């Protein structure tokens, strides 16, 4: 599946035309073409590479999954690898969508490996700023990067909300809740680590694109790319703070469990001490030697009274110390 667009003189001229017509349009001065490939076959990718003069290493990276976000410079083009990020509302897990981009002086070629990136939203951004389409490929690339970075903010906001919900459950009672907090904390920490691997390299990608030696970003587009760069920095800093916050939640959860265990141990120890008193007294009166009240009801009454008095005294003593 392929989608195409043709811009000439800063205006959208044609859309969804056959891929075979692209060489004819590129021969015209002032023409800019966007080509989007969705899950292309290796043969189709090779044909596009031959047509646009794309380096074989860039084609190899575009065909493989799991690439690190980066930008590579070649003689006739630049290759950019990036990710779109969304958060599943049901499972709360991050969903990564890999994207490969080839940037030539007259063409922007995007290679999507799944449907996680909503390309229609990117088209809407291009259509909302017709005054900037005259900036050519640099403007098209800005709309794409701006869409990806905005997705980072949505994902990190939902992660922040999930962490706040987790904090509300920290002091809830019940073993089931404690296990849920532990499991959810580890899931969020894992998601943040994966999210950081995607967001952090994007700083260098956007910063490299703004270098004048690349001739991708024209002077009127510099403020727009600077805005994208600032958003990437904010998303990165937000991610780092959330990592620290999840770590604090996990440590707090362990501390709460340790405190609860201490409270339980104090209660068990207090009741064990109270139970030890009648055990010691009955054991003393049960010896086979004469003692005060031996063989008389006085001995039974005195031992019983001693058990009651000692038990009550210990109970209130432990209660006063907040052990019971």
TrEMBL record:
Query: Where in the cell does this protein reside?
Result: Cell membrane
Q: Which residues form a coiled coil?
A: none
Q: Which InterPro entries match?
A: CorA_cytoplasmic_dom, CorA_TM1_TM2, MgTranspt_CorA/ZnTranspt_ZntB
One Pfam family name from the record? CorA
Q: What is its main location?
A: membrane
Which membrane topology term applies here?
Multi-pass membrane protein
Is Transmembrane helix there in the keyword field? yes
Bilayer-crossing regions? 268-286, 298-318
Keyword Nucleotide-binding appears in the UniProt entry: no
* Keywords (A to Z) from UniProt: Cell membrane, Membrane, Transmembrane, Transmembrane helix, Transport
Family, per the entry? Belongs to the CorA metal ion transporter (MIT) (TC 1.A.35) family.
Name of the protein this chain belongs to: Magnesium transporter CorA family protein
Q: What is the lineage of its organism?
A: Bacteria, Bacillati, Actinomycetota, Actinomycetes, Kitasatosporales
